[in-house]
Write a structure and sequence with these properties.
Elements lengths: L11 H14 L2 E7 L6 E10 L4 E6 L3 H7 L2 E8 L2 E13 L5 H11 L10 E14 L9 E4 L2 E2 L5
Length: 157
């Protein structure tokens, strides 16, 4: 390959803007938890909705992912491997009957799946990001942490 076609190293504000855009347009992410019974790592794709501050996921409460999410911590990954966003966060389980109707309908419309209509025992899980990392390639490894302790690292986005 001739010439460098990479878009270049983005400043933090651009990474935050790109991350927010990705969260707003994507529907699926990889969800990493641990099996509470065995401690074994577990990775599963789940649909999500971003409301501007939190991710909303849904899965069956007895699944490995559901039990892992109910333990209270999660890591999600989205984007391509050469333009990745990793979100670590605290998780709160929400019973389907307790989720605001408009929010549940937004989830169903956006993801094409309505856990309320399922025969399984589904829970919603609200993820409040505490740490976000974003990078494209090696040149963006420095400065990849764009949220720390639930706060974006830049003032202007």
């Amino acid at each position: 390959m001739t010439g460098d076609t990479r878009p270049g190293c983005r400043p933090p504000a651009a990474r935050v803007r790109d991350t927010l855009a990705l969260l707003g347009r994507e529907v699926d992410c990889w969800v990493a938890t641990c099996d509470p019974a065995t401690g074994a790592p577990h990775l599963v794709p789940l649909s999500f909705v971003w409301d501007g501050a939190t991710l909303l996921l849904a899965t069956t409460e007895r699944s490995v992912a559901g039990r892992g999410l109910a333990a209270g911590r999660v890591r999600t990954g989205l984007g391509a491997t050469r333009d990745v966003v990793m979100v670590d966060g605290r998780v709160a389980a929400v019973h389907t009957a307790d989720l605001d109707r408009a929010e549940a309908e937004r989830f169903a419309r956006r993801t094409g799946f309505d856990p309320r209509a399922s025969t399984g025992s589904y829970l919603f899980f609200r993820v409040s990001p505490s740490r976000v990392q974003a990078w494209r390639e090696e040149d963006e490894l420095d400065g990849r942490e764009i949220m720390r302790h639930g706060r974006w690292v830049v003032d202007e986005i």
